Structures are given as structure tokens and as C-alpha cells.
Amino acid sequence: MKVLCALIVALSCINASLGDGLKCTLRPGEFPFEWRDMVDPCTKMLEAQVKTEIEASMTYLAMGAHFSQDSVNRPGFAKFFFDSASEEREHAIKIIEYLLMRGQLTSDVSKLLKFPLKPIAGEWSSGVKALTEALSLETRVTRSIRKIIEKCEAPADVNFNDYHGFKVGAQFTFALAAAFLAQTVSLHFFSSSAASQALRTTLVDPVNGNLS
């Protein structure tokens, strides 16, 4: 056991000493770059969105794990959040693939994720609390995407205009699902006044802030 502990400590020290040496760094290829026409602000916002999507994924993963505990035992909630975590991770992957396609990730791809990455919380007092928080998080993610669209459309980037449609649609799909679930659970467990307030909280348009 002592040998194992010593080995773990030694590996930790080696990892710390190597530092940036363990990063995946690509040497730029000898290719013409005239075709790389994305403006820098648009690129930076898309790179930042990768972290936003991964953090959302980790939050939904934490929610799924919370509701999977035997002391909580809400398999329906767990499945919803695990599926949502996978979807957010897929969004991050699609953004990375898009940046690669446009020739924007040519070196030091580790800059996309600044650690530590962590979920918003580790436990939730009820399903409604988790759904309301998830809807709020998804609202922030959607607004971030809209800002990216506005920034990237400014130079009339036709290629980006063709790309961003799938993302907005996916965000609204999640928002509607979360709002519907929160509405259903609220009406089932709360008094009418509390349910009314829960409905107003969960049925807000994630873009314009209006009741849907």
C-alpha cells in the first residue's frame, strides 16, 4: 500500500513538472490561409461557447447523478438530465468540428477548455428546483448563442448563417421540455398559488423574456 501511495505521489509530481508539455499541440501545416475568412471576434466567442456547453453538460450530469441516488430515486429525472448532458456535450463537439472545418483550430487546442470545469451545484432539494435551474442555465446558454449569431452575422458570414440554425432549434427543444416538466411537477405537488408562480418562472421565453 505504501509503495502504491508513493507511486501515485511520484506520478503527480512528474505530471506537475511536465505541465504544458502534456498538451496536445499541433504544428501548423504549410497550407495557404486565404480561405480562412472568419473574423476574430466571432472565432473567440465560438471558442468560449465550447466551455459554456461543457459546463452545462457537467451540470446536467451532476443533476442526473443526484436523482440516480438510492436516497432520491427519481429515474425519470435522472434520464432526462443524463440525456441533456449528452446533448450539450454534442453541441460542444459540433462547435469544435465547425471551427476545425473553418480552419480556426490549427494549434494548441487545449485552450478551448480552461480548468477547473465544474457544475453549478452538486445536489438539489426537489425536481422542480433542478428543472427551474436547468431552464435558467439553458436560457443563459441560448442568449450566449444569440450573441454569437449577432456577432458572426455582422460581416455577413454566409457559411456561419447556414450553420447556426441547428443549435438554436436544439436550445428551444430543451427549454420547452424543461418548462413542460416543471409545469407538470408543480401542478402535481404544489398549491395553486405556488403552481402559478412556478409556471411564470418556467414558461418564460428564453430569448425575449416573455411568457410563452
Automatic annotation (TrEMBL):
Chain's role: Stores iron in a soluble, non-toxic, readily available form. Important for iron homeostasis. Iron is taken up in the ferrous form and deposited as ferric hydroxides after oxidation.
Catalysed reaction, written as an equation: 4 Fe(2+) + O2 + 4 H(+) = 4 Fe(3+) + 2 H2O
Cellular component terms (Gene Ontology): cytoplasm
Listed GO biological process terms: intracellular iron ion homeostasis; iron ion transport
Keyword Iron (UniProt): yes
Record keywords, A-Z: Iron, Iron storage, Metal-binding, Oxidoreductase, Signal
Similarity annotation: Belongs to the ferritin family.
Binding residues for Fe cation: E53, E88, H91, E138
GO MF annotations, alphabetized: ferric iron binding; ferrous iron binding; ferroxidase activity
Protein name in the entry: Ferritin
Record-linked InterPro entries: Ferritin, Ferritin-like, Ferritin-like_diiron, Ferritin-like_SF, Ferritin_DPS_dom
Segment forming the signal sequence: 1-19
Domain called Ferritin-like diiron: residue spans: 36-202
EC number: 1.16.3.1
Keyword RNA-binding in annotation: no
